[in-house]
Amino acid sequence: MTSLALTGIKKSYGAIDIIHGVDLAIEPGEFVVFVGPSGCGKSTLLRMIAGLEPITGGELRIAGARMNEVSAAERGIAMVFQSYALYPHMSVYKNMSFGLETARMPKAEIDLRVRKAAEILQITKLLDRKPKQLSGGQRQRVAIGRAIVRDPQVFLFDEPLSNLDAELRVQTRVEIAKLHADIGATMIYVTHDQVEAMTLADRIVVLNGGRIEQAGTPLEIYNTPANRFVAGFIGSPKMNFLNVSVDGRAGEAVTLDLAGTKLAVRGIDARPEGLCLGVRPEHLDVGSDRGTPLGAMIATHVEQLGGQTIVYGSLKDRQPIVATLNGQKSVRAGEELRLTADLAQCHVFDAGGRRVAVQSA
Amino acid sequence: MTETTVDATGSSPLLRAFAYAAVLAVSFVMLYPLLWMVSSSFKPENEIFSTTSLIPETFTTDAYRRGWNGLSVSFGWMFLNSTVIALLAVVGNLVSCSMAAYAFTRLQFKGRSFWFALMLGTMMLPQHAVLIPQYLMFLNFGWVNTILPLVVPKFLAIDAFFIFLMIQFFRGIPRDLDEAAVMDGAGPLRIFFKIILPLSTPVLATAAVFSFIWTWDDFFAPLIYLNDIEKYTAQLGLRTFVDATAQSDWGALLAMSTLTILPIFILFVVFQRLLIEGIATTGMKR
Asked: What is the pTM of this model?
């Protein structure tokens, strides 16, 4: 049984379409991350699932039942807001019990649930405090606690870590993953941070312009991006997109020209224009004997991260390229480097941005 | 380095002393009538207009005794009338204006912007333009010579200024809180009472204080609607000390005037901080 099913979900504000028909099925207990650039509609989609935005078209089902017209509170959903949205005038305890009191749950039961959730999140000592007496991380926990006490079928997270500093963000990320493992509820998590997406998700849904570009496990998305947008969005530094032209054809094998370097591949049928070769910086190698030679790169800027060396530069035809090298490499600006890569890790995108499956010939 | 110090504003101590003296002088000129009123209330009747001094030559509280008991109804009774009307106006304004403001900021209803514009329009309307139609209406209701015309409208959110003030404040309350409450299953009423109102104490206090002061100080509306001296407010009572045909009791008038500003003064001192907070957070100007 699916936990949550979106069928042709649409959202328009007047004549402006924001979401153009999204289809997605989410399994019970799955951790799904919506990721995309700002304005891609990921938050709108989440708010429609929550019941905070009316759904313009399509159908939303939770545990098999149609939810389009059901009020937010009756959907069995809890949401953690980006701003935490803790009630400033209520104690932590009251913040967590407010929803249960609204539902007229017996006092004893409320107390039991609040204390249990507080224990899970280790905020028992904070129950009498007001939100303004808490640190960012503690507020975050209370916001999650407020969601947990309602024992929802589905948790929604709207960029919950964006207000935390870098260190706390990593820590909380780990805790959310642990929480998911512990309580096993379905979780939908919205972020624009691809690292959060990669680390937390069972499945990533990449959104752009109100459409799903690709949905798949983090490694599927990383290894076989469906198109140039997904390839560019996931991975840091960003994938290199290098213009290539078709140089010649011999049977099934096609020779591509990359700034004067010839690459023989298989799998391109017509004689397409505007092809582009996608290579992740971390898949590039310098001065190695293995892999396919991709020509020479002139380094213009080098970043030493300790564990990695990131080299910025350009190819012979001045196309910019970035290479991430393992370890500490002594590369100087102006130096010429021989690039190689495993063609199996490279991608070819057609003029429309779609990925073309190619093999090396 | 010389001994002359120059402060952060760059002005010399001499210049600053001069500025302070000027400000004090102007303040004194502004305050003189008030101080004169207070001091004259302790002077015997013949001394009031014969000297401009603020210190009474003979100190007497006789004017207070005469003022309190000199009319056919005790002035205390009028104080009570004023208090009842002012308190009812405060309650009415707080309840009705906060609800109207909540509707305008948070609820979706047909013609919302039209009604909002109309409400703002009533702020521009001078009170005197609606006086006669309003009087006729209350006359038909049989409400003239009762406190109803002074009190009932306050429960119907007629004071657009307070609505506007609260709208400004409510807009500053993050919508996320409403949405979190919606996720928690709260309806509009529960959100209003449990989330919005508790977070609005500064603006509620501001509205309450101004509501009280303006109703307390109001002379015109009670003059129009109240006829019997037992129903008079303190402000109306003050007028009865001045008589165009017989002799006016100036001492009693000034003594009772002093008493009348006392509640306002105390209120202002007590709520000063909340008032400033309310005004600062709403960007209010009047």
From this structure: 0.82
